[in-house]
């Protein structure tokens, strides 16, 4: 007998997977979590999100798995892993996916879906997901949520025709809305990724190099100018690649960031814990696409070179 309620799987139960998975489970959805190092802690204590928006929330018990082979086939898969691990991601998705599964890729950067698509079974629907949320992992199964939570969703590829693809995105958006999460349906996921990159490429790398959060970066005139210049460079690259960026978009992002709680972006936490940073998806891909369109990004290139130096110093061994 077919399961009447769609089964949702979360691959990568860190800050993103933990927060959105908990919100969906809290709303009554059948959610299954794949974990690695945090498996035992989550099995014993569950997942807790300390939210400045929703209050303290705990999901316990958790339908948790350490091996994808033990998970039941899922109709929806939320992928919250970093883009740095995408080389190993496709077999895990294929093993967890039910026939015709919808896979939402919650990752920063450009062209993640484009690179992953050839590695996935044809029957899988691949969806781009962009999370506008301030959160970070405080410890095993512990997530701190400071603000926001909006999701953009756009169909990338699969066997669906245009009407079917639109229906899938509407279904996905409603699933999140029913769980208390604002969701928007995007006709052009590539444009959406460029728009998010305007903020991400600027604040992520600079927060690492200057060891500062958003409040300090915006209060200082020099760092504020640097952030603004980097934003405008990404806007220029997006437009050179044929995307229509809203007028004064960078200025509006800066204004909105001033009203956020002081925030240290995800790359800062990767650097702090000496994990690989998402350098290629946040910077390398934009530089390549910009160059192909005849647009130079000197500040972004310099930022990438400095970040690569920092990362090499803690990842390379003698």
UniProtKB/TrEMBL annotation:
Function recorded in the entry: Catalyzes the NADPH-dependent reduction of ketopantoate into pantoic acid.
NCBIfam families recorded: apbA_panE (TIGR00745), PRK06249.1 (NF004887)
Keywords: NADP, Oxidoreductase, Pantothenate biosynthesis
Highest taxon of the lineage: Bacteria
Gene3D superfamilies: N-(1-d-carboxylethyl)-l-norvaline Dehydrogenase, domain 2, NAD(P)-binding Rossmann-like Domain
Pfam families the record matches: ApbA (PF02558), ApbA_C (PF08546)
InterPro entries from the UniProt entry: 6-PGluconate_DH-like_C_sf (IPR008927), 6PGD_dom2 (IPR013328), ApbA (IPR003710), KPA_reductase (IPR013752), KPR-Related (IPR051402), KPR_N (IPR013332), NAD(P)-bd_dom_sf (IPR036291)
Catalysed conversion reaction: (R)-pantoate + NADP(+) = 2-dehydropantoate + NADPH + H(+)
Protein name: 2-dehydropantoate 2-reductase
EC number annotated for this UniProt entry: 1.1.1.169
Organism: Halopseudomonas salina
Ranges for domain Ketopantoate reductase C-terminal: 188-310
The keyword Oxidoreductase is annotated on this UniProt entry: yes
Record-annotated Ketopantoate reductase N-terminal domain positions: 8-157
Protein family membership: Belongs to the ketopantoate reductase family.
Pathway annotation: Cofactor biosynthesis; (R)-pantothenate biosynthesis; (R)-pantoate from 3-methyl-2-oxobutanoate: step 2/2
């Amino acid at each position: 007998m077919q399961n009447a309620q769609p089964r949702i799987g979360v691959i990568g139960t860190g800050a993103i997977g933990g927060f959105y998975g908990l919100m969906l489970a809290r709303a009554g959805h059948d959610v299954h979590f794949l974990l690695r190092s945090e498996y035992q802690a989550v099995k014993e204590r569950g997942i807790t999100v300390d939210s400045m928006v929703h209050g303290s929330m705990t999901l316990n018990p958790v339908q948790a798995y350490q091996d994808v082979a033990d998970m039941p086939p899922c109709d929806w898969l939320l992928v919250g892993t970093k883009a740095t691990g995408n080389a190993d991601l496709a077999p895990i998705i294929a093993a967890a996916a039910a026939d015709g599964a919808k896979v939402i890729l919650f990752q920063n950067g450009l062209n993640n879906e484009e690179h992953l698509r050839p590695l996935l079974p044809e029957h899988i629907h691949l969806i781009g997901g962009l999370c506008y949320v301030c959160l970070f992992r405080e410890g095993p199964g512990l997530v701190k949520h400071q603000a926001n939570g909006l999701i953009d969703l756009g169909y990338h590829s699969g066997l669906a025709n245009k009407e079917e693809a639109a229906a899938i995105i509407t279904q996905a958006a409603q699933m999140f809305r029913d769980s208390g999460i604002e969701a928007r349906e995007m006709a052009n996921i590539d444009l959406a990724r460029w728009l998010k990159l305007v903020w991400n490429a600027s604040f992520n790398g600079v927060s690492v190099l200057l060891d500062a959060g958003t409040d300090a970066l915006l209060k200082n005139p020099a760092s504020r100018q640097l952030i603004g210049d980097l934003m405008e460079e990404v806007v220029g690259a997006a437009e050179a690649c044929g995307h229509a960026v809203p007028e004064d978009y960078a200025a509006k992002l800066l204004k909105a960031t001033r009203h956020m709680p002081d925030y240290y972006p995800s790359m800062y936490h990767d650097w702090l814990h000496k994990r690989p940073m998402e350098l290629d998806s946040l910077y390398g891909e934009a530089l390549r696409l910009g160059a192909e369109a005849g647009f130079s990004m000197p500040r972004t290139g310099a930022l990438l070179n400095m970040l690569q130096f920092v990362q090499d110093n803690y990842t390379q061994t003698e």
